[in-house]
Amino acid sequence: MSDPSSSSHAKGLALTAFGGMALTIDIPLIRLAEGDPWPILMVRSALTVSVALAVWLIWRLVSRNVPPLIPGRVGLVVASLYALAALCFIPAVYNTSTANLVFILAFNSMFAALLSWLFLKERPRPVTLLAMGVMLVGVLIIVGGGIGAGNLFGDIMALGSAFLLATAITITRGSGRDMGFAALVAVALPCLVAVIMTAKTGYRIDAPWWIVLNGAVIMPISFFCLSNGPKYISGPEVAMFYLLETVLAPVWVWLIFSEVPSRATLIGGTILIVTLIAHSLWQLQAGRRRRRAQGVVRHPL
């Protein structure tokens, strides 16, 4: 007889892995659209909200077991955090290199571990604390290189986005609520801000079909999967799957745009990737050992 907790954990891993993989092409699609930041954010967000509402309405027509768009006050807080993260993300795309952006965003797994410790009493093990320290060194190297390259503002926006995402993941984990639609509807606020700013700065998107693909397909899938992950697995494990974007997004951008990362970015990024992979593998192995031990207690001989 299978262990329900093990099955639930496997479901969470599969869900977040799929969402993380979809997210890897977000930045390349934004770059391919060849537009200004505010119009890009406006179209991307409007499409994401429209698709989320359409899916929710159709789901409600065919089934009664539909998660709420915003599950109470905690859902409103989580939605606000995702909205603020999106507002930080777009300026980061246009004010720092893709490699800097995704490497810094990967730091959200360590933010999630720290926040889970402080607010959910899920105390990190010494190995996690060590990994957090090593990753901090990697981020400082990247940000330090950004100061000389004039990318400091973009790097700070990326770091802010990572922290806000980690906070949303932690609150979702603590509540146990379904936040899939809350994360999608949250982009209505960035959309409203983008509409106001676009009216002032003007509209320019040279290749809008890339943003249509991004906003209508990629973002709804990735956000729904990643925001539901904390129902089944821990916050640090969910944040771990942002590592897929860290590894693959610079590769896609390098192949498409021939954008070569700086030396500081390569050094700091390598530190981040190696540390995250080592820590994630350790964490998953430790989780398996705990579940096996629980299984022995649950089914004594």
How would you explain this protein's 3D organization?
- With 301 residues, the protein is mainly alpha-helical.
- The protein has one domain (24-298).
- The chain is 81% helix and 0% strand.
- The chain contains 14 helices and no strands.
- The chain has helices at 4-23, 26-32, 37-62, 72-95, 98-105, 108-119, 126-149, 152-175, 180-185, 188-201, 208-228, 235-240, 243-257, 263-298.
- The longest helix has 36 residues, at 263-298.
- It is globular, with a radius of gyration of 19 Å.
- The two termini are 15 Å apart.
- The relative contact order is 0.22.
Looking at this protein, list some descriptive labels:
mainly alpha, globular
